[in-house]
Every structure is written in structure tokens, then in C-alpha cells.
Amino acid sequence: MNKQASVNIQKRVAAIHDISGFGRCSLTVALPIISAAGIECCVVPTAVLSTHTGGLGNFTYRDLTDDILPIASHWQSLGLGFDALYSGFLGSFRQVEILSDFFDRFRTSDNIIMVDPVMADNGMLYKTFNSSFPHEMRKLCQKADLIVPNMTEAALLVDEPYHTGPYSKDYVADTLKKLAALGSKLVVLTGVYFDDNELGAAAYDSNTGRIDYSFAPRVPGFYPGTGDIFGSVLLAGLLCGHDLAQSAEKAVNFVSSSISRTHAAGSNTRFGVNFEAGLATLAATLKSS
Ligand code: PXL
Question: Does ligand 1 lie within 6 Å of residue 153's CB atom?
Fold first, then answer.
């Protein structure tokens, strides 16, 4: 091995999500998961909340819209570069345009922009968004290399009514193609199921037309934060050198084992899932090729 090849350059991600102090979602899952993969995770908090907005009562909410571009400017002055830009839950309508600028500042010919269009689940928009937000979020998806919507977000992005499953393969393939037509060449759709026993994801690469599916046994209940866990493992997988289908499979398996562990413990599901107990195994899985 020559000297150059033996140098291991650490990857670096900019993760742009809210930070909810309690409830295990957004930055409180992205940071530990990406770090466990050996990747440096720099954070841009879009808002600070006491908890996530999914059923824990009167959460506090501090919008950080006006801090995002000054953070970007300071980082530019330091000459920082990122292997991936990863956005999730946004704190305000205005943040879409601001993130678009953020992406323009840090995009390079070989980094990846991943947009998780966090805004809805189970057929409903989250409390902090109004009905014009999906139209705005579509603009950010146009700028991405990879988008990671769930089935509800997918319906909002392609401006079609939301349907509960089980879904047909044709419906999923059609939805993936419509999502890619928004501008992002790669799409990973979560919450896909063809029967009531399994739940998983479909990974679509519009460059090749290939669709790969990954499923795990369905566990009853609704588990907040699992979309953020999924996205963080997916991105970590890609940056560790796994392909889109392999990374999506690792993300499905990690979310599934985190949910099973939480269900088996009888924990309050509104508090998020116990992904922490799986981090050491995840790190080993991501590092093996
Ligand atoms: O997991 C998505 C998410 C992220 N951030 C906040 C949320 C939610 C979902 O409810 O409320 C603040």
C-alpha cells in the first residue's frame, strides 16, 4: 500500500435539524448515529424544543432561522468542507430558502445533499407546519441528490391524496418515479408495505432505474423519531462506502431492532426508541464491507 492510500481521511457531515431535548429525534439521534459510524457530525440547529411535537404536551419552541446563515458564513471563513449536507425538520417556512442558500455555499462536485422532507406522518402534517409548507419543501427536494420521504410526505410532495397500505408494487414504483422527477436522482421511500406483516423501504436510483426493497417484521405501535434514525443510518452507510440498497437495508434493520427492543421493554413509545443499545453493533456493521 502506498503512503497516500494508507491515510484515512475522516468524513464530515453538516446535519441541519431541530434539537428536541427529550424524545429521541432529529439531532439527538443524528449526532450519535453519525458519530458511531466514525464520521464527524457538525450541527446546525434549526430550532430548539423541549420535546418533539408528537404528543408530549406543551413543548417550548425557539426558532433559530436567523442563526443559520451566520453559522454558514463563519464555517466558510474557516474553509470548512463537508462530504454530506443532511437536512431534516425545519423550524420555519423561511428556512427552506435559507437552506437552499446553505446548500449552494457548500455543494461540491462530489459531496452528497440529502434532504429528509420531515413534515408529516400517518396522513397528517406535523403541528408546526401549515398546508402551504409541502409546496415549499418541494423546492428544497429539487436541490437534493437524495430524498428520504415517508409515504405521507411522498403524497404531499407529488401533490396526490395519501393512501394507507398495503401498497402495490406498481403504486410504489410510480410514486418513486414521480418523486425523482422533482429533481433528486436518488429516492428512498419509507413506510412501504405489501402486506400487514412486514414494513420497510424502497430505494430507487433513477440513473439505472433500479428499485431495491428491504423489509423487517412489523411491530405494533407508532414510534416517533424512527424516520430520523433511518435517515442517519442511511447516510452513514453511504459515507462508509455501502451502496444505496445496502445502506437502506442497514437502516431498515437498525430501526427494526430499535423498535423491537423498545416494544419488548414495554417503554412509553412517545419517548422514542432505544437505539442507543444498538450503536456498538451498528458501528461494526457499517465498518464491515
Ligand atoms: O422525527 C421527526 C421530528 C423531528 N423534529 C420534531 C418533531 C418530529 C416529529 O414529530 O416533532 C420537533
Answer: no
The C-alpha atoms of residue 286 and residue 38 are separated, in whole angstroms, by 9
What does the block give as the cell for 174?
Answer: 410510480
Cβ of 272 below 6 Å from ligand 1 = no
pTM: predicted TM-score of the whole model, two decimal places:
0.97
pLDDT, tens digit only, all 289 positions of the chain: 444 445 679 999 999 999 999 999 999 999 999 999 999 999 999 999 999 999 999 999 999 999 999 999 999 999 999 999 999 999 999 999 999 999 999 999 999 999 999 999 999 999 899 999 999 999 999 999 999 999 999 999 999 999 999 999 999 999 999 999 999 999 999 999 999 999 999 999 999 999 999 999 999 999 999 999 999 999 999 999 999 999 999 999 999 999 999 999 999 999 999 999 999 999 999 987 5
Which set of grid coordinates corresponds to residue 39?
Answer: 464520521
Distance 53 CA to ligand 1 centre (A): 6
- Ligand 1 neighbour 25 (Cβ under 6 A): yes
24 lines ligand 1 (CB under 6 A): no
* Residues 224, 198, 289, 4, CA torsion sign: negative
Instruction: Give, for ligand 1, the residue of 17, 20, 56, 259 to mutate: max count of ligand atoms closer than 8 Å to Cβ.
Output: 20
